[in-house]
Automatic annotation (TrEMBL):
It is an enzyme of class 3 (hydrolase). NCBIfam families: asnASE_I, PRK09461.1. The active site is at T15 (o-isoaspartyl threonine intermediate), T92. Gene3D superfamilies: 3.40.50.40, L-asparaginase, N-terminal domain. The lineage of its organism: Bacteria, Pseudomonadati, Myxococcota, Polyangia, Nannocystales. Residues 6-193 form the L-asparaginase N-terminal domain. This is asparaginase. GO terms for molecular function: asparaginase activity. PANTHER family: 60 KDA LYSOPHOSPHOLIPASE, L-ASPARAGINASE. Keywords: Hydrolase. Residues 217-333 form the Asparaginase/glutaminase C-terminal domain. The keyword Hydrolase applies. Signal peptide: none annotated.
Amino acid sequence: MSTRPRVCVLHVGGTIGMVRTETGYAPQPGFLAEYMAAMPELRRPELPAFDVVSLEPLLDSADMAPEDWVRIAEAIAARYDDYTGFVVVHGTDTMAYTASALSFLLPGLAKPVILTGSQLSLTHVRSDGREHIITSLLLAGTCEIPEVCIYFASRLLRGNRAQKVHNLDFVAFDSGNLPPLAHVGVGIEVARHLVRKPGSTGPTGLTMIPLVRRPEVAAVRLFPGIGAAMMSKLLEPPLEALVLETYGVGNAPSRDQALLSAIARSAAPPREVVIVNCSQCHGGSVRQTTYSTGAALARAGVLSGFDMTPEAALTKLYCLLASGLPPAAVRARMQQDLAGELTPDPASAAVS
């Protein structure tokens, strides 16, 4: 008789496990574990066995910080050999950031890590959380998908390709540049050609990339009228890296030479701020050679982010800089596919 797979459910917070308080919905320790223990579906033999681990303090995901990405990654690495897969129960607001960060923090991953949550608390009669819990357990325990993913509204998305696109609809997440890794209907249909190969772990199991410091990274969304003074202020020390969210295929104001000069000064030695160009569009890719307005950024030292989401670009910058890499090495790795987060386009990388 085969051994029943076992899944670790890491509860880190979010709407799914919140209850109404005098000041609004807030996470309540113990609530999720008690609720899951009372769900008759979870006792069925076709579902994996599971343990619920509460990573306190439980947080509204708006309160998540890089230190919380690290503690989730450490929790997975510490329990890695004991479970078939992992479900991370998380708030939706910054779920795409956490999923992206975990994909870079755990490069040797060979088991599923499924982030999920809900738009309505489990205390609500119409909560979408029940199905998300059931299906996430199945995906983590029975499907060979060795990636960090987000499961929401019948679709499994690669975590570092996903973005939150709606705050009221149950279809809260989408992936503008990669189809779902799986569709869930009456069956679970996995797009095997899209799933990445398992990573390789060392003799001590899964290890997180070593982090040696807390870098200063930021993101800014361009808007008509943004000026050199504001950009210069943003690029001042201690900033080390910036995600520049541009128009269309990577365009920015090119008539404002003072703005471009501020960017170029920061990207050049001795500062060497790593500036990455990501489109404000949900789908598509940055192509800095298509228009003169994009080429101007390339000449100023801005890197193409290709088809990365801003969430993936920001967390990737953080992880690379936190690992102690110098700016030149970070620039090189930002243009490489490390965890399925981008599709390189050599033609758009630079302008000579």
